[in-house]
């Protein structure tokens, strides 16, 4: 996956859709348990594709809905 997003951007985008402070999201916490549903995940897929992660697909995020996994997938860095 092309590395076009920063860890801070990934965290901020997730926090925006969860309506919380980015610092409140633990890297290994299940984002679905925090309220991130499939519609919001698709919103992120669209947003991040537009930002350059053109190969990103819904299952890439849905199969392991943790900030650390998403950050590594999108940026190559840990959350």
Automatic annotation (TrEMBL):
Could you tell me which Pfam families the record lists for this protein? PP-binding (PF00550)
InterPro entries in alphabetical order: ACP-like_sf, PP-bd_ACP
- Domain annotation Carrier: ranges: 4-78
Extract the coiled-coil ranges from the record: none
Q: What is this protein called?
A: Phosphopantetheine-binding protein
Q: Which organism is it from?
A: Streptomyces pulveraceus
The taxonomy runs: Bacteria, Bacillati, Actinomycetota, Actinomycetes, Kitasatosporales
